[in-house]
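Changelog-adjacent note: as of this version, every example in the card shows the full chain rather than a window. The one below runs 136 residues end to end.
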Amino acid sequence: FKDTKTDYDIRHLQIYCTNKEKGCTWQGNIKDIDTHIPKCPNQVVTCDKCKQIMQGHQLESHVKDKCVKRYYRCVYCQIVGKYVYITGRHQEVCPDAILPCTNEGCQQSIKRCNMELHRQTCPKEIVNCPYYYVGC
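Full-length structure tokens:
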């Protein structure tokens, strides 16, 4: 048989959150712990995107600003992709990335896609003498 008085007494015992050592200050009845734990800011959670483990209160800023698998917009061409790609490999090939001219002494910054055109007219480009083919 079920002892309802003992069940009531147990369910109303005061307890602390199981995350007290991690900083949670919640204190309540045993019956309420199952409601508290999923919302506890100190409960250990896992980022769905990158699988990094952290405390619940860190998840929102992690997903927004730190997750390497969050979506991110290239500051040059505005393409959207995962942060780790956009800030890595994409930066090496982005046609709209601004690069310094490779000619010594040229102080201009040029979009990657315009670099060849710039080098054709750059005053610092080293060109061969028109008589190069005869040894000049």
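Structural remarks: Residues 82 and 109 are 27 Å apart (CA to CA).
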